[in-house]
Amino acid sequence: MADREASPISQLLNTLGITREELHRRSDQMRQFLTADSTYSSRVSDRDSSSKSSSASLLRSASLSTMSASTSARSFSRASSSSMMDASPPPSTPIKSEPVDGSLPQRHYDTMEEVIERQRLARKERRDRKGRRDKEKNFKTPRSHPRSPSPSASQSSAGFGSSLGSRDERVDDGNRSNSSVAGSHEEGRPSPPPLTPQQSKYYRAHTASQSYSSLVKVNPKRESPTPIRPQSLPVSQPGLHYYYAPYSLSTLYSSVPANDEAPAAVELATPTPTRIIKAPASKSSPLPPSSPPPSSPVSSPNKPIVNLVSSPGPIGPLPVEDEYDGLPYGLPPGPYSPNKPECSYAALLGQAILSSPGHRLTLQEIYDWITIVYPYFKRGETTWMNSIRHVLSTTVCFRKVTRDRSLGRTLWAIWDEDLECFKGGGFRKQLCNDIKVKDKPNANGGTKRSRKTSEGGGAPKNKKAKKEKEKEKAISPPILSAPLLPLFPPSRPTPHHQSYYESCIPKSLPSEIIFPPLPSSSGYRQLADSKAAAQASSAVAPNSEPLQPGRDDGDLDLPPSGEDKLTPPHLMSSSASASSVPSFLPELTPNDSSSSPPVSSSDMEVDAEANLGVTPVSISGVDTDEDDGGLEEQDVFTMQLKPVRFWGDSDKQEGALQPGIQLKYIVPNSVLATDDEDDEDLVKATKSKKQKRTKDIPASPTLGLRSNPLKATRAAKNTSRLASPPVTEGPSTPPRKSTFGPSFLSPIHTPLSHRGLHMSPSASLAHYKSNLDPPPCVSYPEKTGDNENPDEDSDNDPRTPSKTRSAATSSALPVTPRRLFSLSDSPFRTPVGKSSFRSIYDPHDPTSLLDDELHRMGAAGHGDSPAGLFGKSRASLLYDSPGNAMGNSPDKWQRWW
DNA sequence: GAATGTTTAGTTAGTG
DNA sequence: CACTAACTAAACATTC
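YS: structure for the whole thing
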């Protein structure tokens, strides 16, 4: 390549009679142009990768040669990066290179023109497609069952796919196609044909009908919530959109790791940037009736971004936030496919919950999220809603967090410990700590009903044991964990939002990994951690980079963080999400293993801009992961925060990455590996209140257990629906326990923490679910150790509100156990109210400290924020920030992601 | 009464 | 064929 680049470029330029400067200029123009027409761009990117590639290649080459990374370069950079990636990864679009070589001379101009034409075509196609889709939708009625796995998936793809045509298509395809290579995981289930009729059986008529109608509008009921997919765009956009989140996540993780396909790495990045907005705690869906939100995300400014080519220049504004204001969760970018997601309900729940900064949402919010992101599900439909509730109730990983009534209904949270279960946007029970535990003890074989099983199996005693263990762990956590763990739990409000990815970060990973990725949120945590981490890191990994300040910085960067402090969580969240790039970084987190492509987190650099959120952010990183199939090389990823793509596809899509934010990170191989640890404990007990159960706690929290391979496989399969079985990840365990980790704050916790003690109305069910565990420990500083019984604890606690029970529950605080910790933190820190939470924080909290710093930094200018970190890498990377639109979308998801 | 949550029962499908 | 996972349905209970 080098050869080409150097000479060819100059040749081309000469031929064209253009100077580099001009070239840049032109590229900028192009970009803008494209940006304007997002759809077009997206399409172009997808489809015409060739064209794009050609243009890009030119630019790229130019940029490379020049090294000038002017903004113009960005787009290119993306391309280039992709190209690079491509090289490694098979799948990546072949196209790129070709164009360049082939038609060099002529094309130059052509490219622009072509692009334009393409745009036109794209638009037309879009329109056409739209029309088709609508029609199709009508026809399609029943969706395949989610479960029915494959079929549905395919369906989506198929349905649209066909129409869409573009390779992007759904993630599924994406996976396959993209990673076509990869397909390994999913391949198993190729995407089947789109809808399976049979399934209809399960689905009620209404479902079908609704689906159709969905486009139109949602349901009567209140929910404004779902605005329905925002855009029809989706349609137009070929593949990309469609599966955003789920796929993306899954894809990313799963595919990546498994496959070597380098692309995966890229994908990771993509995780969606969700924007998080924070909503108040309100129960009801925050969504405005108008529900711009949905659309906005996608459609709005950014969407276009999607691709490519153009990068985004300056997209600037983040309109989004406004639109979404109030949303307590982040939404993945991109158009939302109306097709039924392949993911299981549990996966959807995980995506939804993890999209929130605090990793917790009310049922209502969950519904909203789902309806927005997966227009397939309409409000008012009983089936899926019932199923959702069912899953929430029966799945151990979904912890019920009771809170003051005044605050609203209970929150459903995912603890950090369980993040692994949701890696990749999918859901794997096996990874659930509780389940793991169970398995060991009872050997129940993780069953579905975790809860039940748990109940049955677990003995209450375990709780104590667990707690103790937890304590112990906290005390002597492995180094590994330390860094990763988020120290501070984000309260709900917290913006960080590190996606669960962050949380997922392998403990083992040295700080490096940790770093930047965790954006803001992480930042906090990390800060806290950082200290510890530093130690750890030093100890642990020499890896690539020692904890450099830089990294840390990165963490710190978290622009948002500053915000956090200042702003109320919600605000923060939104802003944060949006603005803070970092937040999304987390997603990147690689998990361990291979799979998690996300890896990323590690050395990522984030553009200052990105951090700011304002401008497009690009983050670039290089991944060295093993994941990729052992790519020893470093892979460069770009992540877009916002852009549409989902998570998944990215691979090929460079385009996908494109824009928004590109992240590059490098992850040392070494880093990736992690072990698990699971431990965790917690247990939840289910409670059935009255009846049966006592809650059981899994006996041994011990770590090791993780899923059995067998199970894993199965799980993978099962989960597959999601698409990707994240499998590999095993290693990455979430931080949970990290030593420090214990940070209390895991997002999860937060809520509870906020609440502090009070909360729980009924101790029973909710209580257990939510509390089960550790929380108690955490909650009380002193007690932390003790509380075996939450209830008791509560009683003991003076603090506890009057209600004994409730108190107990409160004690139970959902917080993840790990947090415990310590020392530092006062349990209290958690904010009470969403809004207020901050106030509550302890001064001592690292979080606070971080915030302050962030603030300062922010004030100064994001620019650098973390910058330091990135600066270096970036340069090396060549990336420019894309400016893409999304710039901000900080969120990311977390995720999802 | 509606929204939530919890449970139980039954179906389908994949896997060993 | 047995298991298990994922879903669907529905009955019940609780809360607002």
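YS: worth flagging: Residues 145-149, 199, 201-204, 344-346, 382-384, 386-387, 390-391, 405, 409, 429, 445-448, 689-690, 714-715, 717-719, 721, 761-762, 765 of chain A lie near DNA strand C (CB under 10 Å from a C1').
IM: good catch. Also The longest strand of chain A covers residues 619-623.
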